[in-house]
Amino acid sequence: MNNFKFIKNINSLKESEFNDLLDIDDSPFIKYGFLESLENSKSISKINGWEPNHLTLFKEKKLEGFMPLYIKHNSHGEFVFDHQWSYALNRAGRNYYPKLLTAIPFTPCDSKKIIKNKELDYEIFIKEVKDFMHATNIETWHILFPDEDINKSLIDNNFIKRTGYKFIWNNKKYSSFEDYLEIFTSRQRKNIKNERNKIKKAGVSFDIKDKSNLVVQDWNDFYAFYKNTYLQRLQEPYLNFEFFKGIHKKRKQLNPVIFFAEKDEQRVAASLFFNSKSVLYGRNWGTSSNIDSLHFECCYYQGIDYCIQNNIERFDPGVQGEYKIRRGFEPNKTYSYHYVLKKDFRDAIKEFCIKEETEVKNYIKACNRYTPIKKKYKI
């Protein structure tokens, strides 16, 4: 008999049973070690607006399904912006928060949002959460950056599809970075070479550390740079050092890669990536120095080089940043899905998303006109 249960802590699950539900090339962000690090470090908690309320399914006391689910008391760290929606509902005298969120905190990357025994249907998980919404009078449920497998089930269950965009680098079987540069117009090829030459002339070199040779001191150095990025904006970082210690502990499972920029035998910047074999994910970076073009080198060119050398198909550097277009990243649509309990607000959100989709479509067309990639190489 199937038994659903909402849980407040992923540590209540057996890691081995959780891992049995995963495929070998699943995103690192849906893996036990990543979610555990978020919770154990208190980087997410009810205090900062992320109250875990994960949906689990057991059969004969064995885990058969898991959905990350949070009761959200704000919209921080989501990267799909719904502030206008919250203002509208509040003006109507109703509460937008708390809301339900199925997503990976602070991580705008596509991944499975339900892992399960392959014999099970997504619909049974969706129904269980809908019943929870009715019982608690929560008006909205948002599923951000899901994988394609679940899309049809969401539409069939009255979710509203919302379209966004991000810029992705695609490896077209390049043999080297020089080979990659051939896709550009001559002017942009020269611009990229100039940016990379600035780094060399500044005396900056790179040291790449991965799961095979990372040590705790590497994370100390990285965190100092990462924290500095937020302090420059007078903000506290989303993720604390205990989170990164958790990632280090689970590094064999999560495949982190850190690129350290060094100058005069001192580390001056670092960027953190995760490697899922087919996709390289760029996540966080920071620096202690103001070196021209260092951000582009540390966060993009080093990642592209790494993908070429390791035959990685795609490089997802995160959301936003039109400057990525000039460096070979191409616009891709992203999707989120939104279930709205009551018809009046549902109709308003549906109209909003239809209009927004047209705007995104026009924006992507404009991006494709702006790209410096030669026509024959465009996706």
- List the uncertain runs: none
In CATH terms, what is the fold-level topology of the largest domain?
Answer: Aminopeptidase
For the record, the count of structural domains works out to 2
Q: Using only CA atoms, what is the Rg?
A: 22 Å
Distance between the termini: 47 Å
Based on the coordinates given, report the CATH architecture of the largest domain: 3-Layer(aba) Sandwich
Mean pLDDT: 95
Largest sheet: 11 strands, mixed
Secondary-structure topology with pairs:
Layout: E1 2-7, H1 15-20, H2 32-40, E2 50-52, E3 54-59, E4 62-67, E5 70-72, H3 83-91, E6 99-102, E7 115-116, H4 122-136, E8 140-144, H5 151-156, E9 160-170, H6 177-181, H7 186-201, E10 204-209, H8 216-231, H9 241-249, H10 251-254, E11 256-263, E12 266-275, E13 279-287, H11 294-310, E14 314-316, E15 330-340, H12 343-370
Parallel strand pairs: 6-8, 13-14
Antiparallel strand pairs: 1-3, 2-5, 3-4, 4-7, 5-6, 8-15, 9-14, 9-15, 10-11, 11-12, 12-13
3D structure, described in words:
The protein has 379 residues and is α+β, with helices and mostly antiparallel strands. The chain folds into two domains: 2-165 and 332-369, Aminopeptidase (3-Layer(aba) Sandwich); 172-312, 3-Layer(aba) Sandwich (Aminopeptidase), CATH 3.40.630. Helix content is 37%, strand content 25%. It contains twelve helices and 15 strands. The chain has helices at residues 15-20, 32-40, 83-91, 122-136, 151-156, 177-181, 186-201, 216-231, 241-249, 251-254, 294-310, 343-370; strands spanning 2-7, 50-52, 54-59, 62-67, 70-72, 99-102, 115-116, 140-144, 160-170, 204-209, 256-263, 266-275, 279-287, 314-316, 330-340. The strands form two sheets. It has an eleven-stranded mixed beta sheet with strand order 2-5-6-8-15-9-14-13-12-11-10. β12 and β13 (279-287) form a beta hairpin. The longest helix has 28 residues, at 343-370. The radius of gyration is 22 Å and the shape is globular. The chain starts with a strand and ends in a 9-residue tail after the last helix. The model has no long low-confidence stretch (mean pLDDT 95).
